[in-house]
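User: My instructor asked us to take a sequence, write out its structure as tokens, and then describe one feature of it. I'm not sure where to start. Here is the sequence I was given:
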Amino acid sequence: MKTSDFNYYLPEELIAQEPLKDRASSRLMVLDKNTGEIEHKVFRDIKSYLKEGDCLVINDTKVMPARLIGERKGTGARVEVLLLTRKDIDTWEVLTYPGKKAKIGDKVVFGDGKLECEVIDIIEGGNRIVKFTYDGLFENVLDELGEMPLPPYITHKLEDKNRYQTVYAKNDGSAAAPTAGLHFTTELLKEIEEMGVKIAHVTLHVGLGTFRPVKVDDVQNHEMHSEYYIVEQEQADIINNARKNGGRIISVGTTSTRTLESVTDENGIVHAQSGWTKIFIYPGYKFKAIDCLITNFHLPESTLIMLVSALAGKENVLNAYKVAVEEKYRFFSFGDAMFIH
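Assistant: Let's start with the prediction itself. The structure tokens for your sequence are:
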């Protein structure tokens, strides 16, 4: 299976640069995974495709304002630091730009000295380990000085940080948003619950690896990035009970999907646990946990379009993307949605 099998033509003007004012007014393409049949709706119409007893699984991770712009102490040179993984309370694995200039012992100052970090190690792949010093709570300082780490294809400045955050985000830790969830409003979720649809929470902290292109020709040779997840017992019970009672498990996003498929056994039972997953889902994969998927439109040749193709079939997905281009759907993080059932 070739990476190029998952390529498609996308005009640059269809890449959504800004979120819509009303989250639930995005367009919704509905794709029947068995027949390939396509319908065109608005996202709030998702209610008409859900029924009592179904279980909607959402990823409640919260995006950190993880992009910091500072100056190298002593030279005043501009340095960008992107937080990736917290090692302990004040120590982080980060990306630095310009990358090769950050040497062990170098210090970077942010916000006129409100925050400072020192490079204490350089690890394989070139990422840096830095130790921060500051007054007060790190999260408060980060909220004041940090910017949202928007994907590289978004060139417009985001005026409201909350628009790159789901309305149910609560657990800090992501470097990117679980974007399928951006379409939900608090009101829409309440209406869905009132229909008798169960809503279960999982957590997967999305890493920047989600944007990393597949650089190998053969899909099976791609090494997947690792991401941390948490599934609590109460939430596992909600999902398992819904399945036991005949309800469908509807995953909101590829991140919820990867979490569920990582913690579900061969009998379809979801287990409460936490850890790191490197699960790579591409055509040929047999799904154990999910029946349906709400997702956005993904980059060509990405692991995300491969996951979607595993669920709905590559031909169906590529045809749906062709139609989406013809119908001028909006693509990627701030773009429109697809419901695969």
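For the description part of your assignment, you could build on this observation: The CA atoms of residues 265 and 288 lie 7 Å apart. Try explaining in your own words what that tells you about the chain.
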